[in-house]
Amino acid sequence: MKPSDFAGAPVSPVRAPLDPVCVRSGSAPLDPASVSVQGYSRETSQASDTPSSMPMLRGLAFNVQNYSVHDGPGIRVEFFMKGCPLRCEWCSNPEGISPYPEPGSYPDKCMGATECGRCLAACKQKALLFTPEGTLGAIDRDVCIRCLACTRACLTGALSAWGQYYGVGEALDIIRKDRVFFERTGGGVTVSGGEALMQPEFVRALFEQCKAEGINTCLETALYVRPEIVDDFFDCTDLFICDIKCMDDATHRARCGVSNQLILENLRRIAARAARLVVRTPVLKGFNASDAEISAIGRFIRDDLHGRVLQYQLLPYRQLGVEKYASLGQEYPMQDFVGYEREQWEPDIRHFIDLLQSMGINAVSGNNQKLELP
Fold first, then answer.
1. Architecture of the structural domain at 3-16+102-161
2. DSSP 8-state secondary structure symbol assigned to residue 156
3. Rg (Cα) of the chain, in Å, rounded?
4. Which of 16, 86, 238, 342 lies 20 to 30 Å from 147 when distance is taken between CA atoms?
């Protein structure tokens, strides 16, 4: 829904500040040196048993998932950080793109202005658009200033906040509760996104404390960051998980919004340090689902990375996160894309795996294959 869809929609001269990374695909590629780290705060927010010497940082995450089994070995706690400089058309986590907290709307949960109306009283910008029937329709994103007052007032979840701040101590408290699962399965903590390395100070402080407590750490990153940021994580990260979406730079710019050259250089950097590395490729028909594209990635892994990849995971595209786009007032970029049916992608993925294995690469289907760390 758009503001023009509502008769008599409220108008306000106040406009929200522009997000530096909220424009979807088709925007100009971002320079990683110019992407400001907006997601963390130095305000104090720590648990009482956290050492007083720990940096007083807060990280902004849009989800914390317990019992995660797909992003690293064993059972893990996974933090999904807000902010991402890429604009992948198939992104299933649009709520992770903006580096700021933001409201999401779920009109089906609304009780109505007559029975409730708490959000209308809370929103001083008059950014909430209601239908003629008196229920929530959408949020006028041009008017909303992301104060989240409406989400705090809402009792039903019709308005909810994408993004919550966590202190390092608060994050550790969540992680420690699952220590027994880590010990039994070889699990630990994974920080993903969005782009985890848009909040490097918070993530590094969290990983350093995890390492001090013997907790395995995994960093899932797109690697579109300055190389010196990557360098800061070699001593506190047990496993890197990174994508290679395609090898052609022009195609990468067109479909992901940025060049892939910095990403590939950072992958070479990780391999040169012999750090543990898992590489993934989302396989999409009409994008990279061909022998030529997959072989090109395979040659890069074999020749440029010297085969120093624990697993190369091929992930068949699935249409996920459509309802999240709707909650943010956005259209899903690939809503007209006709993807693979299972009976199609299974033999294709099997063929690609055979091709890659003939090149000496440990390729697997999906991200649920057991991963053993040397």
1. 2-Layer Sandwich (3.30)
2. S
3. 22
4. 86
pTM of the predicted model as reported, rounded to 2 decimal places = 0.85
Token duo for residue 64: 């914390």
Residue 125 tokens read as 């910008």
Q: What is the pLDDT of residue 31?
A: 57
CA angle 82, 259, 84 (to 5 degrees): 5
Top mean pLDDT of 13-27, 51-65, 148-162 is at 148-162
Instruction: Provide the CATH number for the domain formed by 58-98+164-365 in this structure.
Output: 3.20.20.70
Is residue 231 within 8 Å of 275, Cβ to Cβ? no
Which residues pair with residue 191 across a beta bridge? 79, 219
DSSP state of 41: B
pLDDT in tens, 178-210: 999 999 999 999 999 999 999 999 999 999 999
Task: Report the alpha-carbon distance of residue 65 to residue 272 in Å, rounded.
Answer: 32
Distance CA 350, CA 190 (A): 28
